[in-house]
Design a protein that fits this description.
The protein is an alpha+beta fold. It is 56% helix and 18% strand. Strand 3 and strand 4 form a beta hairpin. The chain is elongated.
Length: 177
């Protein structure tokens, strides 16, 4: 148990360090320029790169947590997923692939049009859109409570929302009037 707590404390220390200065993100940017990407499975690395590559999962966790709290959708893939991270005008794909273990990766994404700005993460910037979404969710929460008071099950409410989503998607695709 002590090892787990030590590792958790060390991860938290690295997390704070990564967002308190630009050392790691600058290394990240330069490494990707030189090597066309990062993969946490890489074995032929010098000591500095090996140490920094081993921290890629922590950077992913930082981005993922910021995205979650700001209602930014995770891009799922079959065995993992990614977020787009923007730094110095360049957008990077940073994600993980699962299987027998977890491999973190990052590369420049030349096709993405936007990403989560590293400086917004560093400054813990909350957008006006995020604040508006929080207000709307609070309204929704109150409506769900009213429905629950009428003894409507969460399952029925969830199914209703899923049907609304399906109808909206079909409408956007021109499949329904």
């Amino acid at each position: 148990m002590d090892g787990f707590l030590t590792n958790a404390a060390k991860r938290e220390e690295y997390r704070k360090e990564m967002i308190s200065n630009y050392d790691y993100i600058n290394w990240f940017e330069n490494y990707i320029k030189l090597h066309n990407g990062i993969n946490s499975d890489d074995v032929e690395l010098d000591d500095i790169d090996k140490d920094n590559v081993s921290k890629l999962g922590i950077l992913f966790d930082i981005v993922d947590k910021y995205a979650y709290h700001n209602y930014i959708e995770f891009n799922s893939t079959e065995f993992g997923g990614f977020h787009n991270l923007k730094y110095n005008g360049v957008i990077y794909k940073i994600g993980y692939q699962g299987g027998q273990g977890v491999v973190y990766y990052a590369s420049e994404d030349k096709y993405a049009r936007n990403g989560i700005d590293f400086n917004d993460i560093k400054n813990n910037k909350i957008s006006n859109k995020t604040n508006q979404i929080k207000k709307e969710f609070e309204k929704l929460r109150k409506e769900v409570i009213k429905l629950r008071d009428l003894e409507v099950s969460y399952n029925y409410i969830n199914n209703y929302i899923n049907r609304m989503n399906d109808e909206e998607r079909a409408s956007r695709l021109g499949l329904r009037k």
